[in-house]
């Protein structure tokens, strides 16, 4: 896996998160660099875990393509073992917790917007939360590609969009957690 995180000595600045939907400029000190952008601890952890999840899925997609070509399983097994040793496996749960911690302070207009989107949810259709998490995942992928191609401006443009989507996803996640807690309370 590509290593996107560097150390503090190289970036003695503050966090770059600034979207109004994510609560405006974050003045927390620099803690990590992901896709070449500066982040504080909370925003950096979300970015790093989102990036790791995106890369994990990319590996799975690669193996899936490999399987389609009818390659024998010992090769696939060897590849999977090699890839497993190349980085820590991240769970969705870890990423969601980091997402809530980093983007859990969305302003009222974002909360209203998400609530309106959820009011239009229909059975059999993708939930607002899943849709937002999918978009977030795609933005991570686009940022990785742009970063690998040295397209700094594009990485920054995608970052602004990712902050907006992350803030919406955090609100939807909060709602989903609340609904889950209510269901559990009703059962006990
Ligand atoms: Zn920050």
What report would you give on this structure?
It contains six helices and two strands; from the N terminus they run E-E-H-H-H-H-H-H. The chain is mainly α. The chain has one domain (8-187). Strand 1 and strand 2 form a beta hairpin. The longest helix has 36 residues, at 152-187. Zinc ion binds at residues 15, 17, 26, 28, 39-40, 42-43.
How does the SSE layout of this entry go?
Elements: E1 32-34, E2 37-39, H1 41-68, H2 73-84, H3 92-103, H4 108-119, H5 128-148, H6 152-187
Antiparallel strand pairs: 1-2
Helix pairs in contact: 1-2, 1-3, 1-5, 3-6, 4-6, 5-6
The structure holds zinc ion (ZN).
Zinc ion binds at residues 15, 17, 26, 28, 39-40, 42-43.
**Which segments are poorly predicted (pLDDT under 50) over 5 or more consecutive residues?**
none
Instruction: Give the mean pLDDT.
Output: 88
Give the helix tally: 6
Total E-strand runs: 2
Key attributes of the depicted protein:
single chain; 188 residues; mainly alpha; two-stranded antiparallel sheet; 6 helices; 64% helix; 3% strand; globular; binds zinc ion
């Amino acid at each position: 896996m590509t290593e996107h995180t560097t150390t503090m000595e190289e970036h003695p600045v503050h966090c770059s998160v600034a979207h109004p939907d994510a609560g405006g400029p974050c003045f927390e000190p620099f803690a990590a660099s992901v896709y070449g952008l500066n982040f504080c601890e909370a925003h950096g952890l979300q970015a790093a875990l989102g990036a790791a999840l995106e890369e994990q899925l990319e590996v799975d997609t690669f193996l899936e393509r490999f399987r389609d070509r009818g390659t024998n399983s010992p090769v696939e097994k060897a590849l999977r073992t090699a890839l497993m040793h190349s980085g820590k496996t991240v769970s969705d749960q870890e990423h969601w917790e980091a997402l809530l911690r980093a983007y859990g302070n969305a302003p009222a207009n974002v909360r209203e917007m998400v609530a309106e989107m959820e009011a239009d949810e229909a059975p059999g259709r993708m939930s607002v939360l899943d849709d937002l998490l999918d978009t977030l995942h795609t933005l991570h992928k686009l940022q990785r590609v742009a970063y690998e191609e040295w397209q700094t401006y594009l990485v920054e443009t995608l970052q602004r969009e990712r902050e907006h989507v992350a803030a919406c996803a955090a609100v939807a996640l909060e709602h989903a957690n609340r609904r889950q807690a209510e269901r559990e309370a009703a059962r006990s």
